[in-house]
Fold LacI family transcriptional regulator.
Amino acid sequence: MSRADTSRRGSRPGRAGIRDVAAAAGVSITTVSDALNGKGRLPDATRRHVREVAERLGYRPSAAARTLRTGKSGLIGLTVTTYGDEPFTFTEFAYFAEMARAATSAALARGYALVILPATSRRSPVDVWSNVALDGTVVVDPSDHDPVVTELIRQGLPVVSDGRPPGTLPVTAWVDNDHEAAVTGILDHLAEAGARRIGLLTGTTTDTYTRLSTTAYLRWCERVGQDPVYEAYPAHDPCAGAVAADRLLARPDRPDAVYGLFDPNGTDLLAAARRYGLRVPEDLLLVCCSESAVYAGTEPPITTLSLKPRRIGTAVVQLLIDAIEGVAPEKPVEQVIPTELIVRTSSQRRPPRTTVSPPRVPEET
Amino acid sequence: MSRADTSRRGSRPGRAGIRDVAAAAGVSITTVSDALNGKGRLPDATRRHVREVAERLGYRPSAAARTLRTGKSGLIGLTVTTYGDEPFTFTEFAYFAEMARAATSAALARGYALVILPATSRRSPVDVWSNVALDGTVVVDPSDHDPVVTELIRQGLPVVSDGRPPGTLPVTAWVDNDHEAAVTGILDHLAEAGARRIGLLTGTTTDTYTRLSTTAYLRWCERVGQDPVYEAYPAHDPCAGAVAADRLLARPDRPDAVYGLFDPNGTDLLAAARRYGLRVPEDLLLVCCSESAVYAGTEPPITTLSLKPRRIGTAVVQLLIDAIEGVAPEKPVEQVIPTELIVRTSSQRRPPRTTVSPPRVPEET
DNA sequence: CCCGTTGACAGATACGTTTCTGCAAGGTCA
DNA sequence: TGACCTTGCAGAAACGTATCTGTCAACGGG
């Protein structure tokens, strides 16, 4: 028993450690680490030999040990403020899904992975947040004085938000659309198409998107001298949207054009218009904010505003990883992503050429 | 310099370690660990004191160190096989979004978090898979001989798949619908509503869902003596679906009822029917498999088959965590989730009472 | 012939926990 | 009064890696 007891201790069979590789290759642990990580000064022969032995043993470095040693985990948190009773609703609308998808792709391309985390740091039964080693976090639509964000920043972790942070929330960087400009552009577009009284379907929540969009609408109305006509409903309730759409079209001062702030508003408004015998676009012009492709196939196709969630998701992750790998900038970085208005039949009073359906062109999202 | 040099070494300021807490509380690190984790035999006074000191210092235990020591990370991988060129498409359809949402909720409720990972373990530039410590993995629709799944199983990690694993893929457990029964049920439903020739809109991919559904259709046709009428298209291409729907209705042996296997097929088929002047449901009965709520508001509302992705996502995670925390069962656990057919106007030749639109009832998904 | 330099590796330490083992003080029982 | 158990806590050994600090041989210049 001179040196035979260094074989393996309590490790589970099937998982080889760096020590096993070193022993099998006849070199030291240092050499194995350097050979596999491309560091140190090693002749190519040694490097190849070590790599070959590691491959043969099926060696996988322990992510936990590496994280502990280097301080980097390669993990990025992704969190969305909760709307209803569900802990999070990142797929409530197509926007979140697209944005999360793009963020995941961008992160993976740079060697990071996304961890989905709840917005509320409740302790039930353990706090998931403190159980995962994060290099940084993406926060979608943070609320004011968000305790999670504050705590993360206090720990020195970079936080990038999708959506302009409200109040004095000290995020590292943020990405957002110019919602005021988008709303103003849509209202101008509808007015140009002949709308005299434009209504708004908005939400009762106080998130930045809803707030900015609504005030932009009110300001536009004031500027052009139109009385505001809008209905607000809790955006997280799928049934409430249909009811609100109905209310809006049932008003005595019924609008002749409507912009809906949320994804399902298009179909809800279309259904409500059918119930009241209103033709779209002849009697009612329609635009809604959506990333869904179904509005290209409805009867009639509905004009939508795209917030470009893919570009936002990509930008957010790039900014975050830049902050993780580089030095965090002094002032928060702001990045504005332009929106895109996809004009379809529902917002054009005079169809471009003829009244029969034009040939479908492939939609690009 | 007798013992003063144990204060702090190279740790970043702002992050207190367990040693700092122990020193501040005047106890050993063992006592701190036991007090915070509810272990050991400590009087309540000591426990409270330690917790108070830890709170005051803002102590957060290092997840990496804990993972290294305990071997549990509290992280669950979530991966979806790639369809197109994108590394993954988990939000391609509403199904994946809903399923991922439910899986995340279920995981968080039990103290785990989900990490989104690519299906292909390509090395670009580093392998993300080996950079994250996982306790187990959820695989959606794994392909045959999936190298990632094989490697994970070889490492002794539990793997639960959404979708019956093809071939001899050795997963720990799996959850799926009874797709044959679902398709047969829909075809019976359509035949009962008066359909004489039922068509199918299916995919060219070889995943289990597409394969099982298509063969069930073919067997049903053989049983009732109908010639199969179907069109297949690459399901990951959003434009191809519209074209395939058009092709199906343009055939000389045009079907008088169609079942579409994928989410967007409903709107695509509806648009195609309008182009050919076919009334739904009078001239054409329509059913598609979808989780989207828009089909409750289309004109007419379209009957959909729900695969109950929330229940599947929940079940998959429960099974996986059971396997992580308990002893892995010898034989793979199989769990079948029933589907739900939401019958709407598009598949009822005779509307229930009257020809005017019935009052909308709140849909429950 | 000596010394400085460079290449190629090995030893040892630290990352921050959890937990096994140990140890004194005090109480109980024969 | 020992023997023995319980309580309340401390010491120290891992967990598996990355890296800092050597060490040793070869080598070339002066």
Q: What stands out?
A: Chain B touches chain A through 71 residues (CB under 8 Å). Chain B is about 35% helix and 15% strand.
